[in-house]
Specification:
By secondary structure, this protein is mainly α. The protein is built from 14 helices and five strands. Strands 1-2-3 form a three-stranded parallel sheet. Strands 4-5 form a two-stranded parallel ribbon. Helix 8 (135-144) packs across helix 9 and helix 11 packs across helix 13.
């Protein structure tokens, strides 16, 4: 029996290189070895997009096509839509009795995101909703509703997974050994930096290259990338380790990397020429992904069928799990 692995992505926009290197490449390895469930987390996306449901709805197909385009196989991965599994919402309600508000507020991931919202919106955090604060509870329901044994995470997500384990332990201590404590599968890739040098590439930060970006968009973004600020003239020597252009040459494994590095250090390469080479190599790197994606863009009914079939399998697994949970809670009337 293969172990069950559960992961999810919020449909708030297309995937970028950070998603691909930080998660996607790991998914490609895992799909062969596990009973893999991949949740399109539209309900969780609504926690901070509740006033823009059309954005979430539109991006369900967009993000699914991105995932298929990088090579995920619908014969090996069960793609499903979170809102189509009502058992997750039911379990979220049950778990809400097992977690205190103060514990949620202490969660490092939640604390960081609340701090960002306070900085963005002001008003001392009064814009924080009950649903946003309860995000870790919903995530615990996602995982355990499918008896998830393994969860791919980055370092920043570990506090959410630990909260899930706490909920599992609390549930089992009250209702008997029913749930499995999930284990993390840590990403082997460091977080991808943005074109502006930010430690994180993000949709909202304007520093990302998306898998669907056309050649003109990629060209404009790369031409605006941060280089060594100490390189003033074209023939000045520079430090490639502080240059985002070199960083991306290395990220996509440019076969000309040694030349790029040595010429940069000697001042034998100008930044514009280096950026133009990166534009060419980036387009070559993304070309097969875009070609695969076009198959689904031209046949949207295939995407509908993949989501329908995956959701059907996920629903059956969730229903079976909820039978056990309701029985343990003495509410299997």
């Amino acid at each position: 029996m293969k172990k069950t692995i559960l992961t999810g992505l919020r449909p708030t926009g297309n995937l970028h290189l950070g998603h691909y290197f930080g998660a996607g490449k790991n998914y490609l390895k895992m799909q062969n070895d596990y009973d893999f469930y991949l949740e399109i987390a539209d309900v969780q996306a609504l926690t901070d997009n509740f006033d823009n449901p059309e954005k979430v709805r539109k991006n369900i197909k967009e993000i699914t096509m991105d995932l298929l385009a990088i090579g995920l196989d619908p014969e090996k991965v069960n793609f499903f839509i979170q809102s189509k599994i009502p058992e997750i919402a039911e379990l979220t309600v049950f778990y809400s009795n097992l977690v205190t508000v103060s514990r949620l507020q202490r969660n490092p991931t939640v604390k960081n995101e609340i701090a960002q919202k306070k900085e963005l919106f002001g008003n001392n955090g009064e814009s924080i909703t009950y649903g946003f604060l309860g995000y870790p509870v919903s995530q615990a329901a996602d995982i355990t509703c499918f008896n998830g044994e393994l969860v791919p995470v980055g370092d920043d997500q570990l506090p959410l997974l630990e909260q899930c384990r706490e909920i599992v332990r609390k549930f089992n201590s009250i209702y008997g050994e029913t749930l499995k404590e999930p284990e993390q599968v840590l990403s082997t890739t460091t977080r991808v930096k943005g074109l502006d040098g930010n430690e994180k590439m993000g949709k909202s930060l304007g520093n990302a290259i998306f898998l669907v970006d056309d050649e003109d968009t990629i060209s404009k973004k790369i031409m605006g990338a941060i280089t060594d600020p100490n390189k003033i003239k074209k023939d000045d020597p520079a430090d490639p380790d502080v240059c985002m252009v070199y960083y991306y040459h290395k990220l996509i494994d440019n076969p000309n990397l040694e030349t790029v590095c040595s010429e940069c250090k000697k001042g034998a390469r100008g930044c514009v020429a280096c950026k133009r080479e990166l534009i060419e190599k980036m387009n070559e790197f993304l070309k097969p992904i875009k070609e695969e994606r076009k198959k689904y863009e031209d046949n949207p009914e295939l995407v509908d069928k993949i989501l329908e079939d995956g959701t059907k399998k996920a629903k059956a697994k969730a229903e079976e799990q909820m039978k056990n949970i309701r029985k343990a809670m003495k509410i299997d009337y």
